[in-house]
Amino acid sequence: MWKPPQKIRWTTGKGVVPDVATLRTSRLFAPLQVGRLTLETRTWVPAMVPWRADDQGFVTDNVLDWYGRFAKGRPAAIVVEATGIRDVPSGPLLRVGHDRFIPGLKRLVQRVHDESQGHTRLFIQLIDFLSIRRRPERDKFLNRFLAITPAHRENLDLPETTPDAQIRTLLGGLDDDTLKRVLSLREWQDLTIGARERVTDTHLPHIRELPDILPDLFTKAAIRTQQAGFDGVELHYAHAYTMASFLSATNTRSDGFGGTAENRVKLPLEVFHNVRKAVADDFVVGARILADEIIEGGSTGSDTQFFAMEFARADMDFLSLSRGGKFDDAKQPKMGDAAYPYTGQSGYECMPQFLSDEFGPIGRNFAATKAIRMALKKAGYDMPIVAAGGIHNFETAEGVLLGGVADIVGTARQSLADPDWIAKLAAGQGDQMRTCEYTNYCEGLDQKHKQVTCKLWDRLALDEKDVALSVDNKRRLTAPAWDAE
Ligand SMILES: Cc1cc2nc3c(=O)[nH]c(=O)nc-3n(C[C@H](O)[C@H](O)[C@H](O)COP(=O)(O)O)c2cc1C
Ligand code: SF4
Fold it and tell me: Residues 258, 179: one domain?
């Protein structure tokens, strides 16, 4: 992963631990209306893919245990990981692209309800993504994947009649610098990083048709989640995936869905309107977007303020703000691996680590989030805003709320490090909480599509009765019980 050159070592701690009386009057433990639902507190576990689904995308016992464990700590809301809306194979990523996924998702809703005794609201993040290939071997790419074009003949000074096979042989004999000059930039990227579809590939019918098919796909998926008993959905409009790419300033589609910010927000709004119309009034519909893409030529705060205003005008129930996490600046993967959108600078900004610059891993998205929330407030909109990024104890969480950054605090890695931290605070035992150290060990597992665990607890109490272990048999899959540590 990209790291800032300064490499300053940051540490975290419990901060000032409040007593129960202080907590009762805190903003963090004050209820909040989101759409027609009430969250009991402002605590929220954002989406985290833990690689627990089976290869067909079904809920497994490990999925139930993962979310059950978070629910035991009674956050006001959990957002279930990015869940695919299409009925296509996607490896061990949860899916909701067909009715056959509903029974498993129902069990998930029930488990969270049981473990939290009805205190935790459950949302699910709906995702669409385009295809991405692994980085190919040079020979394979030049002989099988590359489509020979007139530009290759021209760049090699060859007559138009030169057979493709001869051109492939010639390309195979070139050194990298010369090959780079002969190939187009896109072909060079396909070779050195791996081919990846973009929303701007409108010469491909299935990409051109995205605006026609996505509203229906998202809507049907949302209806299924409602049938499964979820309290709402978070439309995934962030990071490296299809809808974020429509919002991106790099989206140059010329069919009315790219170019200006007004055009780029058109499809995300259409998806939202379609979903909203199809679900019950008390079913929450929100979205996650990027406050800043952190890529060259990408959307920045002013674009996002415009998008946020449009979503608020459309009566969206909440907006969760993330940062970066793009393919555009991802590191070159190893041969045979696929690019991972959290390896470049934009990835660092999404999940910053303890080795950091003078700004550290805490609150890198706060200023941008606050600016968006303030712009909304000024325009008369009260749509709740969820902040995330380095919030790890009562002090940082309360600071976010009192400082006007957001209405809800999202704690992804902190909740993974200690799923009971909120329950511990509520019980007046905040001094027992374990704080995330922002090592990104968990994120490294995610990158390899390995079952995600936290380094602070995955080797503890391994001899506990019935403890579920990772496939390598070395790590426990959920945090030990609070009293078992
Ligand atoms: C293992 C892991 C998986 C993640 N998966 C998702 C995801 O599915 N969808 C999403 O929007 N963000 C995902 N994120 C990003 C988090 O939701 C969050 O925005 C980020 O970790 C920063 O917040 P934090 O500092 O509280 O961890 C993931 C993060 C981690 C560590
Ligand atoms: S492994 Fe644990 S301590 Fe390290 S970043 Fe992830 S949640 Fe935090």
Answer: no
